[in-house]
Write a structure and sequence with these properties.
three-stranded mixed β-sheet, 2 domains, about 140 residues
């Protein structure tokens, strides 16, 4: 015996279909939220902690003092930079280069040497070039407090 088309449509549009649609919609929202937490910013670290994984540390320096010493030694070993009064300071999780250099090439060289000596440590370059950066400071208007 064949059921008419009208009866088949009527049967599918009953209360069961609404419950299944609501369940599918809720599951989709929950899955989207979970995926955004896992693949969003910092989510891989949270999931690693939840799963009990240890963070991977690659080539970490023995300590901040050792890192400072390596970077200072690398800068002093270069004949172009040895005469420059450069400061290497700890800053956050990394280091900061401060001071004045004679040319842009010296600034780039100092940053490159510090970056190589630091390995995976973060380096912030605050080196200024004599004759370029001091003119820009003199041209700025005084700022009020």
């Amino acid at each position: 015996m064949q059921v008419s088309v009208a009866r088949r449509v009527e049967r599918r549009s009953g209360g069961e279909l609404g419950a299944w649609a609501l369940l599918g919609f809720g599951t989709g929202i929950a899955a989207g939220f979970l995926l955004s937490e896992v693949f969003g910013s910092g989510g891989h670290r949270r999931m690693g902690r939840l799963l009990g994984r240890r963070p991977r540390h690659r080539d970490l320096p023995a300590g901040r003092a050792a890192l400072l010493g390596r970077v200072r030694a690398a800068l002093q070993a270069d004949p172009l930079l040895a005469a420059e009064p450069l400061e290497v300071r700890p800053r956050g999780h990394g280091l900061e280069l401060r001071g004045w250099v004679a040319t842009r090439a010296a600034r780039a060289l100092a940053y490159r040497l510090a970056r190589e000596a630091a390995g995976t440590g973060e380096i912030t370059n605050h080196l200024l070039v004599r004759g370029e950066d001091d003119r820009a400071e003199a041209q700025e208007s005084p700022r009020s407090a």
